[in-house]
Please model this.
Amino acid sequence: MSPLEIEALLLSVQVALTAIGVSLPLAIFVAWLLARKTFPGKSVLDGIVHLPLILPPVVVGYVLLVTLGRNGTIGRWLFETFDITLAFTWKGAAVAAAVMAFPLMVRAIRLSLEAVDVGLEDAARTLGASPVRVFATVTLPLASPGVLSGAVLGFARALGEFGATITFVSNIPGETRTLPIALYTLTQIPGGEDGAFRLVLISIGVAFAALLVSEIMARRLKVRLGT
Amino acid sequence: MSDVQSSALTDAPPVLDVDIRVQRGDAFTLHAKFTTDGGLTALFGRSGAGKTSIIDCLAGLIKPDHGHIRINGESLFDSSHGIHKAPEKRRVGYVFQDARLFPHLRVRANLIYGMRLLAESQRRHTLDEVADMLGIEKLLDRHPAALSGGETQRVAIGRALLASPNLLLMDEPLASLDNDRKAEIMPFIERLRDQSGVPIVFVSHALEEVVRLADDMVVLADGQTIAVGDVEDIMSRLDLRPHTGRFEAGAVIHVWVAGHDPLHMLTELGFGAGSIWVPKLEFDRGTPLRLRIRARDVSLALQRPTQSATLNTFEGNIVDIEHVAPDVSPHVDVLVNIGAPVIARITRRALEQLGLKSGMKVFVSVKTSAIDRHSLGLGRRRAG
Model:
C-alpha cells in the first residue's frame, strides 16, 4: 500500500472507532429509554433518533456545519469554552459518522434490550440490587449480543460515511480524507482508476475484518452467556 | 430463643401484618387482610384468586392502592404515610414459579447474587450451609440451562435464602413439576420451614401441598380474604367447603410415631385421645407428623362396629354437619370430635336414617389403607 492509502485507511479506522466509542454509551442509554420507559415526548425522541436514517446525508452534514461550525451556536461555544474545533477536522468527521451510525446502533440495541425478560430484572431487585446494578449485571450482559451487533453495524456505517462527512468537514488530505472520500477523489482525476480499484479492495478487506472480529466476539459471548 | 418468648409476652407486633387493597381493572378489587407469627403461611385459592398479586405487593413489585404491609412492625408500605419501599430495600426474598435464574450466570454466581450485596455482618447463611441443606453442592459450576426442573427450583430457593430475607415468598414453586419432582422438593421446603427461621408465605392452589407444609393458611376467593387461621382449624370448618374444595377435603391432625408393628407392617400414630394404625412408615419413634384424613375415607356408625376389618375405630361427638342443598351432592360432611377433629363423608340418606344431630355420640372408622405418604407431612409443634 502507498503511504497515502495507509493514511486514508488509518484515518478511516480512527474516525469510525472514535465515533462508535463515544456514541455507544449514549446509544445504549437512548435504546434503554425507548425500550423500557414511557415518558412524554417518547415518540419525538424516537423520531429524532431515526432522522439521519431518512434524511439525505448532505442535509445532515449541512445541519452539522451550521450548528457545529465555527460560527454555529454550539460550535462557537465549544471553541470558546473548550477550544475544540470540529469543522474541517477529523473530530468533525467522527461526529458526522457517529450521527449517521446512531439510529442503526439504537435500533439493534433496543431490540435486544426488549428481548430481556423483565421478570429477571424483578428477581434481581428482590435480591437487593438497585436499578442501576440490575442494568449492569442482568440487563446489559443479556443484551450484549445485540449491543455488539449494533456496534459492528455502526462501525461499518461510520467507515462508509461520505455525504455528511464531505459536507461538514470537506476533503482535506490527512485530516478528513477517509477511504470513501479518497476513492471519490481518485475517480475525479483522469487516470485514477487503478488507485480507485486498490481502495475498493482495501475497503472490502476492512469490512471483512470487522465482520470476522464481531463473529469471534459473538461466539465468545455465547459461551459466556451459556446459551 | 428466650428473646422470642419474652417478645411474645410484651405484645410484640405480628411478624407479618398485611392489609391491602389493589384495584385490578374496573371490576376486580383485591383485598388481603391477615397477620402471621412466623412459620409457613399458605395463601390458598383457585387460579385467579389474586394470590400472586398479593405476594407481588409484599415484594414491592406491585404498589397497592390502600393499606399497609408491616414486617415485625416496620412498614414496607403504608398508604396513609406515603411509604412505599423499593423492592431492593425490603429484604423480602421471592422464589418465582418460573424460578427466574439468571441464564448468563453459573449456579454459584446465581446463589451469591443477593448475598454479595449484603454486609458480612448481615448474612445469616453461608453458601456451603445452604448448598448442603438444598442438596445442590454438585451443581455449583453448572449453567442454569443444564439443570432439571427440581434442581432449578432448589437453586432459586437457595438464591433467595442467601440474601438473608426477613420474609420469604414462594409462588407455587411446585406447580411446574411432576409428582416425583414435587416429592423431591417437599422435604427441602419442610427443612427450610423448620431450620431457617425465616417466615415464609407460600402461594398454592393445591390443598395437598398446603396441608403438608403450612402452619397457617389464608383462604382467598375472587380477590377477597375468606378465612385466616391454623391449617387444622380451617380444614375442620365445614362452612369453608366451597373454597377448600370437596374431593380432597379432610381434617388435619397432629400426631407422633408411637410405635411399629413390623410383623404386620403397621405403624401406630398417637394423637391427643388415642392412636391410629397406618401402613408402615420409615420414621423414628416420637417423630411428630401431621396427618390428613380425607373425609371420603371416614365412615360413621351409631354402635361400635364389632366384626369390622377396620383397625381404627374411635368414639366421639358430632360437632357440626355441613349444609348441602339437595340438588348439589348426595353427600354431606360431618365433623366429629374424637379428641381431635375428624370429618366423615356420608350420604344424605344415611344422615336422615341414622337421625344424626350435633352433639350425638357416634363411632368413627378410618380406613387404614387410605393413609399413604401423600397424607403425611413432617409436623412441627410451634412453641407457645
Summary: The radius of gyration of chain A is 20 Å. The interface with chain B takes residues 117, 119-120, 122-130, 133, 137-138, 141-142, 224-227 of chain A (CB under 8 Å). Chain A has a mean pLDDT of 91.
